[in-house]
């Protein structure tokens, strides 16, 4: 979900930024690129939201076999259909992405303004105290924060009694 959602959208955006610089040709349509990014977002939302809902309704994540004629699994069908539609939107978005890049390759318009703009500071930077740039100190701070955050939950695995879970569908 994280890789196919936010990370891939970032890769799409990087591609749209670098493609004209690598090929020397302008992107075919900036508006179509925005449509492609938004359709990917909508498709990922349509695909992944039912995963969460079905998990709350009792659908197992990984199993060896499922009896698909039980009342429990029949209740999943509308959600699964919505996931399939989300996958179709994702496929359309991926095809649109490839279409944009291919059309950009065939473009006769040269890319312009390829020089990246850099931000200039409003105030001149000052020297920081030495302790702020001490990597050893920050590693100790990170270690202490991790111990505070994760120490207690991890210790619970060793000291609290656990109970067996029941198989799904019972």
Outline the structure in words.
With 170 residues, this protein is mostly helical. It folds into 2 domains: 1-112; 129-162, no CATH class. It is built from 5 helices and no strands. It has helices spanning 3-23, 30-56, 71-74, 77-105, 135-159. The longest helix is centred in the middle third of the chain and has 29 residues, at 77-105. The chain is flat and about 65 Å long. The model has no long low-confidence stretch (mean pLDDT 86).
Helix content: 55-70%
Low-pLDDT regions: none
**How many beta-strand segments?**
0
Largest sheet: none
In short:
This protein is mostly helical and about 170 residues long. It has helices spanning about 5-25, 30-55, 70-75, 75-105, 135-160.
Keywords:
170 residues; mainly alpha; 2 domains; 5 helices; 62% helix
Walk me through the topology.
Blueprint: H1 3-23, H2 30-56, H3 71-74, H4 77-105, H5 135-159
């Amino acid at each position: 979900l994280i890789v196919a959602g936010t990370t891939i959208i970032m890769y799409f955006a990087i591609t749209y930024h670098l493609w004209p610089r690598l090929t020397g040709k302008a992107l075919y349509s900036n508006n179509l690129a925005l449509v492609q990014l938004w359709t990917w977002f909508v498709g990922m939302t349509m695909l992944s939201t039912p995963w969460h809902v079905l998990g709350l309704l009792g659908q197992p994540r990984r199993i060896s076999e499922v009896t698909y004629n039980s009342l429990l699994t029949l209740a999943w069908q509308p959600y699964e259909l919505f996931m399939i539609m989300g996958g179709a939107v994702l496929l359309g978005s991926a095809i649109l992405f490839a279409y944009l890049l291919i059309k950009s390759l065939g473009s006769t318009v040269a890319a312009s303004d390829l020089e990246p703009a850099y931000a200039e500071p409003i105030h001149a930077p000052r020297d920081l105290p030495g302790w702020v740039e001490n990597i050893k100190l920050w590693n100790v701070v990170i270690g202490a924060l991790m111990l505070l955050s994760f120490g207690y939950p991890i210790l619970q695995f060793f000291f609290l009694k656990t109970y067996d879970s029941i198989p799904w569908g019972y």
